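Hi there, hope your week has been kind to you so far. Thanks so much in advance, here it is.
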Amino acid sequence: MARSALLNVMVQAALKAGKSLSRDFGEVQNLQVSVKGPGDFVSQADLKAQKIIREELMKARPTYGFLGEESEEVKGTDGAHRWIVDPLDGTTNFLHGIPMFAVSIALERNDEIVAGVIFNPATDELYTTERGGGAFLNDRRLRVASRRVLSDSVIGCGVPHLGRGNHGKFLVELRHVMGEVAGVRRLGSASLDLAYVAAGRFDGFWETGLSAWDIAAGILLIREAGGFVSDFHGGTDMLATKSIICGNEHIQKALAEVVKRPVPTK
């Protein structure tokens, strides 16, 4: 597959950060048994990965803006371009030695996502996409799954945890979805959830309370794999509303109807 110069910069930044995370991930199991625990270590791994990514990206395009999970947003003098970065999506998995985490990098141009990279260094899976250029897993072209009904589908989701999200609202959504689908899955990394939809592993996905860096790259990946993405209001401003529902044309529409059903009165 041919990559633009910009996408190559993004890929190299993700791979370099992923190499750093892989080394740190190898230490997590040892830290699990320490009195202090791995929490401080993982936060440093996160910060180190973002520093690597930012240095690589800003070296190539110093005038672009930068929005990363681990720092304040930097406005670029360019005005039209912004990097959107999650250096370690799936921190809790990383903390517990679970190999489901990713580096996510997106490029936004005039408020539109035009390129994205999602890399899981634990599995060596590299997802790449450019607007109009398709979506790829390593060098394999991706297409969303072709299932047309929810009863045949496996759906991904995010599960709110301690101190996050509306637990009652989510339980209602889950109750509705569980009754309609073949299975529900939760990976613990929104960027990988979206990558799995693009790869046809999940038929659909929904979640609220997300940040731009969680979903920016995945939104374009799904669209370039032939999928449909909206927010919970049926619009396309997912980064602002912090909500997402996606799948192929049929599953996305059906899933949106199910998760927005009203709370049962009985």
